[in-house]
What does this fold into?
Amino acid sequence: MRIGIIGCGNIAHQIKKWGFNISAVYDIYPERCQDMNGNICNDINELIEESDFIIEAASPQAVKDYAMDIIAAEKSMIIMSIGGLVDREFRERLFSLARDRGVNIYLPSGAIGGIDIIKTARIAGLHRVTLKTTKNAKTLGYEVSEKTLVFRGMASEAIRKFPKSVNVAVLLSIVSDMDIDVEIYADPTARENIHEIIVEGEFGKATIRVVNKPSPDNPRTSYLAALSPIYLLRSIEDVIHMGV
Ligand SMILES: NC(=O)c1ccc[n+]([C@@H]2O[C@H](COP(=O)([O-])OP(=O)(O)OC[C@H]3O[C@@H](n4cnc5c(N)ncnc54)[C@H](O)[C@@H]3O)[C@@H](O)[C@H]2O)c1
It folds into this structure.
């Protein structure tokens, strides 16, 4: 399988580091691809042509700009910038095109856990999904002296107020098929991004708390998030599928 990657940042470099053979790469700043494997493409069309399977690891805008063309070309893809799927109408058109063309779109768990519980619990009915996120205050743009609740509301509003921290909230909203409750805490001393997910439904209640260390090579990306496409790529190649 020829793997193509859009965006030669931290996640792309992790994929290279864990031994995947990459055929083609594309970045709006091509110099960032110099130490990657594979042909450095001049544009997205060249990348699509030279890949059988594409990993988007660039930006929400990249999802909006390229995902339709990738799926129309009948190439399966992983989307890391889940924030690019925030618009329900766009998302449904993209998913529907993938079903028509018989190709797969993978949305990895990224920096959180519990997606398996939400998907399973949805069968009998979900009552409520809550996301409580704690991040370093400066990263969120706040000057506070102690851990402070800076947002409480629905995911749709949180996404507008914190456009750089949307991936987890959008993924949970898509998987739950509801506008989830979100609380965001700014902590002046936090070194880790903490996500607590509370799922309530006919099945009972689950609480998942993930304390994310930053990636060894890039403090802006949670290590678990950078590892999640690696697991996904391995599982695609495997015949035994656990916990899905
Ligand atoms: N799903 C999750 O939980 C999760 C977690 C972490 C990161 N992410 C997302 O994954 C994406 C990649 O993360 P990263 O840490 O590797 O980022 P990064 O900033 O290290 O790298 C992104 C690279 O993509 C390139 N790029 C940006 N827009 C582009 C475009 N339109 N076309 C081509 N190249 C483009 C940039 O030049 C950069 O080199 C980000 O959007 C990030 O928000 C998702």
Summary: The domain at 115-212 is CATH 3.30.360.10 (Dihydrodipicolinate Reductase; domain 2). The longest strand covers residues 126-136. DSSP finds nine helices and eleven strands in the chain. The chain has a mean pLDDT of 94.
